[in-house]
Write a structure and sequence with these properties.
Layout (H helix, E strand, L loop, with lengths): L4 H14 L7 H21 L5 H8 L7 H8 L1 E5 L12 E8 L2 E8 L5 H6 L7 H17 L3 E7 L6 H5 L2 H14 L4 E9 L1 H5 L6 E5 L9 H9 L5 H5 L6 H6 L5 E3 L10 H19 L4 H14 L8
Parallel strand pairs: 3-4, 4-5, 5-6, 6-7
Antiparallel strand pairs: 1-2, 2-3
Length: 315
């Protein structure tokens, strides 16, 4: 990431020094130790208090764990569903039946690729209408068979191309929201990376919202906001803080319920730690929500919506 370049340059220098034979060179050995300590100090300072824009960049790191990684690690007996039974199969959206702690679930999630070829095939995690309709298939199955829904958010937004609009993009998103609001089963949502606009909201509303520390959830990306307000996407850093879209902001606003800690630099630096945190958060949420009566779930979900955006002005 751009702000990590000073650290990356020192790490490259340290690696080159370590390749040298310094057995008979105490001065070189001392230089290596000092450089390693400097890198640790610089990294600790860099991540001590990340800016909102830094967190956005971390959420987009190409090595960050993706939906399919969480599903493969946390779930067993995964059976993926394909197609929306109307147009086609959108690889940008994962919909599957899976088992978590002996409990059968329906899993939804935006799916990015691990390389350029996969990202192109999966449209960089930006679903078409058929992707949202495939997700809705999973929602309806969950409601029919009494299975909790687990959703993973990681998209800059729904695909805005003309072909998506021709096939009913806005309609598909609206149908997903209407379906989610009426499900009689628990819905647990995890923000694992990017969470942009209606593309995230379509599968991102439920009874619990758990955010990874460096994930974001927003009505628009910082670049989109800067383009609208200033006609200049390069001013994304200026508006990132104003959008209040990072995990801590969402807790303060009453939108998110819990934050899963990440190692300094992002989830990709210690995936085992992050998978464990997400698993524990899911376990707690399901233990709390699954025993509840469907009417109680629906009433609490309605009140959750009503509370959003309520504020008081100081006298």
């Amino acid at each position: 990431m751009p702000f990590e370049r000073p650290v990356a340059e020192l790490e490259a220098k340290l690696e080159s020094l370590r390749r040298l034979d310094h057995g008979d060179n105490p001065a070189l050995h001392q230089e290596i130790e000092e450089l390693a300590a400097e890198i640790v100090h610089l990294r600790d300072g860099l991540y001590a208090d990340p800016t909102p824009w830094m967190r956005v960049q971390i959420s987009r790191h190409p090595d960050r764990p993706k939906t399919q990684d969480y599903v493969a690690t946390l779930f067993t007996d995964v059976i993926e569903l394909h197609g929306d039974r109307a147009y086609g199969d959108d690889e940008a959206m994962l919909t599957a039946l899976a088992t978590f702690d002996s409990r059968r679930c329906v899993v939804l999630g935006h799916r990015k690729g691990s390389n350029t070829k996969e990202n192109v095939r999966r449209n960089f995690g930006s679903p078409h209408p058929e992707g949202f309709r495939k997700a809705m298939r999973g929602m309806l199955l969950a409601d029919r068979f009494g299975l909790p829904v687990v959703s993973f958010l990681d998209t800059q937004g729904a695909y805005p191309g003309i072909e998506a609009e021709e096939r009913g993009q806005a309609w598909a998103i609206a149908e997903c929201l209407a379906t989610l609001s009426a499900l009689r089963v628990p819905i647990v949502v995890f923000g694992i990376g990017e969470g942009g606009s209606g593309g995230a909201l379509a599968i991102g509303f439920g009874d619990r919202l758990v955010m990874l520390e460096n994930a974001y959830y927003s009505v628009v990306t910082p670049e989109g906001c800067a383009s609208i307000l200033y006609k200049d996407a390069e001013r994304a850093e200026d508006v990132a803080g104003c959008l209040r879209m990072n995990a801590g902001d969402l807790i303060d606003l009453g939108i998110a319920d819990e934050v899963v800690a990440e190692p300094p630099g992002g989830a990709q630096r210690d995936t085992t730690l992050v998978y464990a945190g997400v698993g524990e958060a899911l376990r707690r949420a399901l233990a709390d929500l699954c025993p509840r009566d469907p009417a109680e779930l629906l009433a609490a979900r309605y009140e959750r919506i009503r509370r959003l955006g309520v504020f008081e002005e100081p006298s």
